[in-house]
Structure formats: C-alpha cells, structure tokens
Design goal:
305 residues, alpha/beta, 12 helices, 41% helix
C-alpha cells in the first residue's frame, strides 16, 4: 500500500482542529505523519496534539504565509507517496476518508483526488444546496477532454481535502509559490492540460461549510478572480461565468420547487455580490491600490505588491 501524509495549514487552532486530528488518528488507513504548518507560534495551543501519534508542527510568521508556498514547504518534511492537504476546519465524516480519497491514486487512475464537502448542521439552506451542487453524490474522473463540456469545472479541486501523487506533484513543480488563492486549481489545471487525470471521490467525505455574508462572498470571489487573471496560461479561454449562472438557475429552480421562494431574495443578493467581486477581480490591475485592498480577503498578500 502507498504511504500518505496529511498536511494542514493552521492558524489559532481550536477544538475543531483537535477533533479533526482525533478522527484522522482513527482512520482505517492511517497517515504516516501529520504535518501542521502553524502561522504565529504565540497562538498555537500544543494541547490540540494530545494523544496524536506521528504529528509535527512547524511555525511561521503571518508575513511568511502564502497559500501555495506554505503548503509546498510542508512537503519537504514528507517522504510519503501521497500528499494529502486539508484545512483545519474540515472534519472527516467517517473512518474511511483517507482510504476512499487515495484509492483513485493507488489504482493508478488519477494524479489528484479530492473529496466531497458536506454542509455542517448550522449551515444555511442556500449554502447547503450550493454544497450539494458543487459536491454531488456521484464520483467522477476529469481530463482535458471534459473542457468543452465542463469549462472551468474541469480544473475544480479543493485543498480543503485533496490528495496528490507525490511523483506527479514534484514533476509539475508543486504549488505555485506566491498566490492569493487557488493554488489547488492552478496545479490541477496544469496537470489536466498536460494529459493527467483528476478524480472526484464522492465517498471521501469531510464536513466543511461557511455561512458567508454577501460582502464576504464579494471578497472571496475578488481573490478567486485575481488568481485567474494572474494565470492566463491556465484559465484564459475557459468559460467560467456560465458555471455561476447555471448554479443560480439550478438553485432558483430547486427552492421554487421546494416552495421556498423567499430564499431567492438571498440568492439574488449574494449572487450579485459574487458577480461584482469576480468582475472587479478580473480587472484588478486597473483599480487603484486602496480599492484593491478594500476588495480583497487577503490584505497581507498585497503588502509586497
């Protein structure tokens, strides 16, 4: 069997991370090692690691953190065949997460495999449906042949819970070292365009959702679009907005069918913020610096710009 390490960027660890580590420890396929990349040592509570074997923590400053670079630096500490990346707020749904997540890679069917994100109990109805739309119950494999049909969705991958074949990860240079966001899709896009396959493993499940406000959606989509604008070699010519429009239409249809038309008010409100953030992010080079800093979810990223 292939070996697998879990890498988790951490900031102000809490009880949720502690529970996530406990569930990782109880997996049917145990990680060889769990590597925590912690931002700001003064906020790290070592008790989150109590009772967890083969775990190590590496500290960095807030200025040193980068979505791509920090994750890539963690790979130096790993000798595993498969690199699993997770976020600190992603809870394994059951004991089979790792087993199901790495299966497509172990079987030689994919270079990347990402898991299904389920809504938490406190999740709002609109976000719950969005989770179902983006993370359906059926597994699939994605290649360059799917680009005409799926558009930007072909490259979709999430480091909330994703596994990478180490050999291919290294061959493609790993994650980009400086990126505001989207290090996972940039690497997945590179691999797919070069003939590799990405698997969506629907039976590898984590509990992970957000109750973002409209303004938070705006900031998030701004950063998402900035990452796309910075990487035309991956995203140029790939239809993206149409996928967002499809989500809005499907969501509206769903809640009308459910007899909950009032949710459409929230849908229109949040979709408007998402679209505005995305359009501004695409054109961020034309915006004054103060406006970029207001629009972004990651102000520290722009300090070195």
């Amino acid at each position: 069997r292939m070996t697998a390490d879990v890498i988790i960027p951490v900031y102000r660890p809490d009880a949720r991370l502690k529970e996530s580590l406990r569930r990782l420890e109880a997996q049917t396929v145990k990680p060889t090692k769990i590597i925590l990349m912690n931002t700001e040592e003064r906020y790290f509570d070592p008790s989150v690691m109590d009772g967890i074997s083969h775990i190590e923590v590496h500290h960095l400053t807030k200025e040193e953190f980068d979505h791509g670079k920090t994750r890539h630096e963690a790979t130096v500490w790993s000798q595993a065949d498969i690199l699993i990346f997770m976020t600190q707020d992603a809870l394994p749904k059951d004991r089979y997460l790792i087993e199901h997540l790495i299966r497509p890679i172990e079987e030689g069917k994919a270079s990347i495999s990402y898991g299904r994100q389920l809504a938490a109990p406190d999740c709002r109805e609109l976000e719950r449906y969005t989770r179902q739309f983006n993370y359906p119950a059926e597994s699939c494999y994605k290649t360059a042949a799917d680009l005409p049909r799926l558009g930007i969705k072909t490259f979709f991958c999430s480091d909330v819970c994703a596994a990478y074949l180490r050999k291919d990860y290294d061959a493609f240079g790993g994650f980009i070292r400086k990126t505001i966001f989207n290090e996972d899709m940039i690497l997945a896009g590179n691999m797919i365009k070069s003939g590799k396959t990405v698997a969506y493993a629907a039976d590898a499940r984590v509990i992970h959702s957000h109750n973002y406000t409209g303004l938070m959606q705006f900031h998030r989509n701004f950063d998402l679009a900035v990452s796309q604008a910075d990487h035309p070699e991956i995203f140029e010519g790939i239809r993206s907005e149409t996928e967002g429009i499809r989500l809005v239409k499907e969501t509206a249809r769903h809640f009308l069918k459910e007899g909950k038309p009032w949710i459409l008010v929230e849908l229109v409100w949040k979709s408007g913020w998402k679209f505005l953030g995305y359009r501004l992010g695409k054109e961020y080079r034309r915006l004054p610096g103060w406006m970029v800093r207001w629009c972004t979810m990651s102000p520290s990223y722009w300090k070195e710009q």
